[in-house]
Specification:
The chain has one domain: NADH Oxidase, CATH 3.40.109.10. The protein has 226 residues and is α+β, with helices and mostly antiparallel strands. The chain has a 4-stranded antiparallel β-sheet with strand order 1-2-6-5. The protein has a two-stranded antiparallel ribbon with strand order 3-4. Helix 2 packs across helix 6. The chain binds 3-iodo-tyrosine. The site of 3-iodo-tyrosine has 7 residues, from loops.
């Protein structure tokens, strides 16, 4: 049995070429803009309209994905009570992670980031977005099948979400409470969805700080064969 009910066929790409001089301007501007992005843990409680969060998720969901299954669910939370429950559960896990589970080689490495088990950003930021990765999908014949390259697909979608949030003038943090199974329960997601990232989204606090870090240079991160 063919899986796709109606083969949608192909349509024109409708590609609008950009002159190379303008390409260079746009590429430079984008590179500068992206290089200004920083991850901060210090959020302002200032409200952010839901429409902006919807647009960020829509941008993220344009990501390419294995077999175009789009194996992601973005759960956006502004409800204060639910955020408090999530923070509470995250801090319980994170306390054990920081105190018991994290090997010394790991804790030494993240020490400059100034993190600990206290996750104030979860309740301070006006929104948190939790990205769930779908490891299975319901086939048209009613059976469950795997998704493909869901880690890669969701990683790309997360990158686009981060870029979209930065582009609209807000900040986010890729927080990974671990283990994060509690999120599936609290957010009522099915068993085949796996929480991947918890991202507070909002304005930075007035006195927001970031670690004094440098990015690797182009030479350090690339190799060319011209
Ligand atoms: N998941 C923990 C610990 C942590 C791990 C890494 I690797 C970081 O770059 C930062 C933190 C947390 O979110 O605090």
């Amino acid at each position: 049995m063919v899986e796709v009910d109606v083969d949608p066929g192909f349509i024109s790409l409708n590609f609008d070429p950009i002159p190379q001089t303008e390409m260079l301007v746009r590429a430079t501007e984008f590179s500068v803009q992206m290089n200004q992005r920083r991850t901060t843990r210090h959020f302002s409680p200032q409200e952010v309209p839901r429409e902006l969060i919807e647009l960020a998720i829509q941008s993220a969901s344009t990501a390419p994905s294995g077999a175009h299954l789009q194996p992601w669910t973005f759960v956006a939370i502004s409800n204060a009570e639910l955020k408090a429950q999530i923070r509470n559960a995250a801090e319980q896990e994170e306390r054990r992670t920081y105190e018991e589970r994290m090997p010394k080689a790991w804790s030494e490495l993240i020490q400059p980031l100034g993190t600990d088990h206290v996750k104030e950003h979860i309740t301070t930021a006006p929104w948190i977005i939790v990205l769930f990765r779908q490891s299975k999908r319901l086939r048209t014949n009613g059976e469950w099948g795997p998704t493909y390259y869901s880690q890669e697909s969701c990683g790309i979608a997360a990158g686009l979400l981060i870029a979209a949030i930065h582009n609209m003038g807000l900040v986010t943090l890729t927080h990974t409470p671990s283990p994060m199974n509690f999120l599936r329960e609290l957010l009522e997601r099915p068993d085949h969805e796996h929480a991947m990232l918890l991202m507070p989204v909002g304005y930075p606090a007035n006195d927001a700080q970031v670690p004094n870090l440098q990015r690797k240079t182009l030479d350090e991160v690339s190799s060319f064969f011209d």
